[in-house]
Amino acid sequence: MRHLDDGRPAHHPGPRRRPHLGSTPHRRLPPRPGTPATTGHLRVGGRCRAVRKRGDGGAVVSGVERPLTIAVTGAHSTGKSTFLARLAHRLRQHDLEVATVADLGEQAQQIGLPILHSHTYTSTLWIMTRGISNELATWPHADVLLVDRPVPDALGYYLAALIYRGETPDPTLLGHLRTLAAQHSMHYDLIFRTELDHTVPLGTNKARDDNIRYRRLADHHIATVLHDLGIGYELLAIDGHDTAITRATAFTLTQHTGDDLATI
Question: Can you list the domains of the chain with their CATH numbers?
Answer without folding.
Answer: 82-257 (3.40.50.300)
